[in-house]
């Protein structure tokens, strides 16, 4: 069953860029769809995640934020 991973980001965010590269690297063997959402395109997301980004969410559950820990993400997918 395909899982959905949402990566909340913003433009010109080096942590967000690093998280995206990390996720693409570690998740290539998993049945996961990665969707990127810019928090500046949604006022509710901006209010919620303003200082936390990047944020990784899998199937509606927030897994990690800021400096993304690949172990946390992979553990949640197993």
Description:
The chain has helices at residues 14-26, 43-49, 70-77, and strands at 3-9, 32-38, 55-58, 61-65. It is an alpha+beta fold. Strands 2-1-3-4 form a 4-stranded mixed sheet, covered by helices on one side. Helix 1 links the parallel strand 1 and strand 2 (32-38). 36% of the residues lie in helices and 29% in strands. The protein has 3 helices and 4 strands, in the order βαβαββα.
Features:
single chain, 78 residues, alpha+beta, four-stranded mixed β-sheet, 29% strand
Q: How is this structure best summarized?
A:
This protein is an alpha+beta fold.
Could you estimate the helical fraction of the residues in percent?
25-40%
Biggest sheet descriptor: 4 strands, mixed
Oligomer: single chain
Q: Span between N and C termini?
A: 12 Å
Radius of gyration from the alpha-carbon trace, in angstroms:
12 Å
Judging from the principal axes of the Cα atoms, what is the shape?
globular
Q: Tell how many strands the DSSP assignment holds.
A: 4
Strand order of the largest sheet: 2-1-3-4
- Mean pLDDT equals 93
Which regions are unreliable across 5 or more consecutive residues at pLDDT < 50? none
Helical run tally: 3
Structural class: alpha+beta
| Strand portion | 25-35%
Helix-strand topology string = EHEHEEH
Helices and strands in order:
Blueprint lengths: L2 E7 L4 H13 L5 E7 L4 H7 L5 E4 L2 E5 L4 H8 L1
Parallel strand pairs: 1-2
Antiparallel strand pairs: 1-3, 3-4
């Amino acid at each position: 069953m395909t899982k959905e991973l949402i990566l909340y980001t913003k433009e010109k965010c080096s942590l967000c860029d690093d998280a995206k590269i990390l996720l693409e690297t570690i998740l290539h063997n998993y049945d996961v769809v990665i969707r990127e959402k810019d928090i500046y395109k949604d006022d509710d997301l901006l209010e919620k995640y303003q200082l936390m980004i990047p944020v990784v969410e899998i199937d509606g559950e927030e897994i990690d934020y800021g400096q993304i820990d690949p172990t946390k993400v992979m553990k949640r997918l197993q």
